[in-house]
Amino acid sequence: MMKRSCGVLLPVTSLPSRYGIGCFSTEAYRFIDFLEEGGQSWWQILPLGQTGYGDSPYQSFSTFAGNPYFIDLEQLIGAEYLSRDEVDQYDFGSNPSCVDYDRVYHGRYLLLHRAYENSPYALHPAEKWQDSVYNRDRYAFETYMTNSKHWLDDYALYSALKGRFENVAWMEWDEDIRLRRPEAMKRWHSELLDEIRFFCFLQYMFFRQWKALKEYANRHGVRIIGDLPIYVAMDSADAWSHPELFKLDSTGHPTVVAGCPPDVFAITGQLWGNPIYDWGRHRAQGFSWWKSRMEHAFFFYDAVRIDHFRGFESYYEIPAQEKTAMNGTWVKGPGMDLFRSLGDTIAGRKVIAEDLGFLTPEVHQLLEKTGYPGMKVLQFAFDARSDSEYQPHNFVPNCVVYTGTHDNDTTRGWFDSADPEIRDYAFRYLGVRSREEAVSAMIRVAMMSVAEICIIPMWDYLELGSEARINTPSTLGNNWKWRARSRAFKKELAERMLGLARLYART
After folding, report:
1. Distance CA 123, CA 147 (A)
2. How far is the C-alpha of 66 from the C-alpha of 47, rounded, in Å?
3. Which helix (H) or strand (E) holds 72?
4. Shortest CA distance to 171 belongs to which of 233, 245, 102?
């Protein structure tokens, strides 16, 4: 059981900052101060992994590596790896409420490369950085690389190779390196040594900055809920370096891919395209890859939300040649075998199960056996035709309640677009008569519920409309972009949040 508490959902990307995207900058520290002032115990974020096409944090190039976008350029300026003039040459976008990923991508990596070359960590450091006073820095970097070797070596080589092959997916690389033949691995490692070290540098900077930010949060009474996607991306260091753990053919291409069947949100289903795990192989290896993955997650977070939990009971697999998710089939997952195996790894640590979507009795049984709290989303509660498990009067304490998630519209947007019958029922349930009152009433009902943890998306505290929606599933091009304005986190709002937390015994 978790102590009764509350927190806020806000992706790191959505923080205000000077250079186009939220990162581990001064604004992140100020946000933690705001959470402390507001009596909040949790900051829930989205996955921190490096994003690619589509910018989704659920499609990362590595399940272990961090996103270089989050490296704070101000700290690199402070360390004299970059000058302010160099950074100010780049345009990271003109709209402070929206991430311009194209501009961020093209500017950020050029600057990060320049920072690496002008640092004591470079393969051939400039004379300024060769002084013995920097030996301690170099030793710490080498120690980090040694301790992270089990994933960092493959990730850094994979990333360097992607650059050499003009960023095409690894399935399209030359056969010898695509299939990791020893002579090709040796040749490419030698040829790309400097670029490999650059990607190690990025991860080291990410690691140092995130560690400092998390420690600051913990000292101020704020714990981090991280998000663990169930799947890895097909174009990832994980799939390339461990093809035996996935259902791939002899050429490295998937035979089946992941997704969701058709439902009210997507009439042709959701074709995610992630490779499916070869659970038989994972089981034969004692789930060692999963143990390593979970250990890594708990190094970065105080609690872990496991995405798409139902996929561990049964998962939906689709033949790789299909263009939609309509012709998939349900296949039995690893079930309790996996969670028993992870017992020592996650013992005494906080796990939240994302148990949304189509749930069978078997999924409910698996959740009950693990003892993990599930999720209750109030936007799902008001279908007037049913007495829903998402209605607070049906909650059990062992759950986490949300007004909405990153996949929902904002609560303001939801009320604006909801079916009138559903909206009227929600008004009656919440005890309000208008949309102007509805968002704050929804927050209040979540806070007063018996759920042991209450997480409110920041856009709902700000009562923003659909312009602040983070993600619309099964769409591309307009997701993961919203950012809070620098003046959004006001003292008056923190006081209101603190008042609710105290009133409902969540401080």
Report:
1. 19
2. 9
3. none
4. 233
Residue keyed to tokens 């990410």: 206
Kindly tell me the sign of the dihedral angle through the C-alpha atoms of 172, 473, 245, 163. positive
pLDDT at 2: 56
Asked whether the CA dihedral 214, 215, 217, 222 is positive or negative, the reply is positive
Structure tokens at 317: 């697999």
pLDDT given at position 385: 73
Angle formed at CA 121 by CA 133 and CA 157, multiple of 5 degrees: 160
Find out whether 433 and 427 touch, Cβ atoms under 8 Å. Answer: yes
SS3 assignment, position 15: coil
Cβ atoms of 445 and 390 within 8 Å: the answer is: no
Alpha helices by DSSP H, 410-490: 411-417, 420-430, 435-448, 458-461
Residue 176's nearest CA partner among 233, 252, 91 is: 252
* Those residues with Cβ within 8 angstroms of residue 404's Cβ, 6 or more apart along the chain or in another chain: 377, 378, 379, 410, 411, 414, 457, 460
Length of the chain: 507
By the 10 Å C-beta count (0-12 exposed, 13-18 middle, 19+ buried), 124 is classed as exposed
Q: What are phi and psi of 7, to 5 degrees?
A: -165, -170
Look up 354 and say whether it is catalytic.
Answer: yes
Task: Collect all residues with Cβ–Cβ distance below 8 Å to 342 and sequence separation of at least 6.
Answer: 287, 290, 291, 294
Alpha helices (runs of H) in 63-181, residue ranges in sequence order:
73-78, 84-88, 101-117, 135-147, 149-164, 175-178
Give yes or no: 307 in active site: yes
Catalytic, out of 354, 355, 409, 452: 354
Angle 196-198-203 from CA coordinates, rounded to 5°: 100
Q: Is 80 annotated in the active site?
A: no
Residues 60 and 229 sit within 8 Å (Cβ to Cβ):
yes
Radius of gyration of the chain (CA): 23
The reported pLDDT for the residue numbered 383 is 84
Exactly one of 137, 407, 416, 463 is catalytic; which is it?
A: 407
C-alpha distance across the termini of the chain, in Å: 16
Q: Is 285 exposed, middle or buried (0-12, 13-18, 19+ CB in 10 A)?
A: middle
If one counts every other C-beta atom within 10 angstroms of the C-beta of residue 436, the result is: 11
CA–CA dist 344, 349 (Å, integer)? 10
Which of 81, 82, 43, 48 lies closest to 62 in space, CA to CA?
Answer: 48
The reported pTM is: 0.96
Residue entry with tokens 């929206």 = 98
Crossing angle for the helix pair 135-147 and 149-164, to the nearest 10 degrees: 100
Calpha distance 135→141 (Å, rounded): 10
Q: Which amino acid is at 76?
A: L
Residues 271 and 318 sit within 8 Å (Cβ to Cβ): yes
- Position 471 scores a pLDDT of 95
Which one from 302, 307, 317, 409 is the annotated catalytic residue? 307
Ranges of the chain with pLDDT below 50: 1
